[in-house]
Write a structure and sequence with these properties.
With about 350 residues, the chain is α+β, with helices and mostly antiparallel strands. The chain has helices at about 30-40, 50-55, 120-130, 170-185, 235-250, 270-285, 290-305, 315-325, and strands at about 5-10, 20-25, 30, 45, 65-70, 80-85, 90-100, 105, 115, 135-145, 150-155, 160-165, 190-195, 200-210, 215-220, 225-235, 340. It has 2 domains: about 5-130, Secreted effector protein pipB2 fold (2-Layer Sandwich), CATH 3.30.2450; about 135-255 and about 330-340, Secreted effector protein pipB2 fold. The protein has 8 helices and 17 strands. α4 (about 170-185) packs antiparallel against α5 and α6 (about 270-285) packs across α7. The chain starts with a strand and ends in a 12-residue tail after the last strand.
Amino acid sequence: MDTIQFKLNHFRYGPYNYDLPVVDIFINNEDFLPVVEKFENNTHAQVLPGELYKNLTEYYKEDPVYIFGCVCSVPECSPVEVNIDIGEKIVMWYDFTFGSMEDVVDEKGKLGRFVFDKAQYFQEVEKLKDWISDDTLNVWYDSISYGYLTLNVKKGEKSSVLIFDDLTSDPIPQLVRFRNHVAAGEEWQETITDFCGDGDIIFGITAYHCGFPEKMQLEIQLPKEDTVFYEVYPIAKIVGMIDDILQSLLHDDGFPYVYPCFCRLSEDEAANEEWEKMEEEVQRLIEKDATLDEEACMMALVAKGRIPLEAGAQEIVELYRKMLAEHVIPNSWLEGLQGGPIEHRDNDAEQF
């Protein structure tokens, strides 16, 4: 049984001066476009998610449908078409047609006849539906707790909870950098990783020009969930969305003792005496069945204003506060972080 996978990519068609979202097709873990181009000795382009979705869910019933098109932006100019049969448990692609070869049909199956498991096939097709959804994409601040920051991402019925560690995956410096470049109308991308373990990508955020004045395409990549959300937004709305996150953190009662300076309180003699008093207060405030995390957070909140931060931490807090309020990032905080301007490479853009 063959396998199929769709991945969101970007391509700059001939008449445009900006990228558009397109769909890469992988069959048996191999990018199918270079296979087709080598077979036909011709160049093609991927097609838009909405076009491919309609072809694979509606138009295939009557005629062959195109899965790749022409680099000029008109798919029918030089299409790669395929016949599709859908059975009870399988889906078959066969008899590919190439417009540049005077509609020659690959009847002998030299390019291949592919048989997919129906459930796996339509699981991938549903991803296309997500990419063309009219639902609003939202990213917002949730909370801080025990040295962790939680953000939420939601589009339609799909949502994701993103949790960051203040020591290994703090996203705020990169979100501020992203915000500043988008505010200047520049295309930009940031990839937030977890420095612990194998450095997994937690999420990526990208802004592309989209051909509309004062607007950009905002894209959120969630590799662990194999999910990509995108939507065209006014630049001011993208900036405002990030500003809301920054302001929510700045004015959270737990800032900065719960995040980003959790467990960075002074341990001198006076502080230790104050800790003993606080422990009694905390025991009266929390429920008997409170978790260790809840107890630790309550301790941090009670400590605020009573126990100074350890040496050096107060300076970090002031820099952090300035970053949240004025969007000024210490250069050293960005060293080694993945982010920068988008490199446009026609038909070969980097994927998450």
